[in-house]
Amino acid sequence: MEEPTEVKAAILAKYEITQDIYRQRFRALEVYPGETPRELYVRLKELFSKWVRPEQKSVKEISEMMILEQFLRMVNTEMEVWIKERNPKTAEEAAQLAEVFISARRSKGPCSFSRDQHFSRKSGQLLHW
């Protein structure tokens, strides 16, 4: 007979409920209809625990997780996707991947990594959004 934690892990995997899903739900700015402030607090606390898993991590690991999330939110979407596909474990790894991403595109002209600036490969122009 399988352990309850193994069954739970299998169900979460089948429905693709990952730490990133809990992060997205935690970061969503949604208050459910009829939800009280106390219920909102409890829901956020539960989502945070499922996302960060503070009982399993050190303060340094949690800090690195938060820095990585913020780093990915600040880079342009194309770079964010490219970095996520390589599954960095730390923000430092993500920064190294970002450098690789930029250097691979540098031969095509200037390349900005900021989310609010995008490089158009067709025109070779830096676009400000």
From TrEMBL:
Domain SCAN box: 23-99
Record-linked Pfam families: SCAN (PF02023)
PROSITE patterns found in the cross-reference section: SCAN_BOX
Domain of life: Eukaryota
Record's protein name: SCAN box domain-containing protein
Species this chain originates from: Pygocentrus nattereri (Red-bellied piranha)
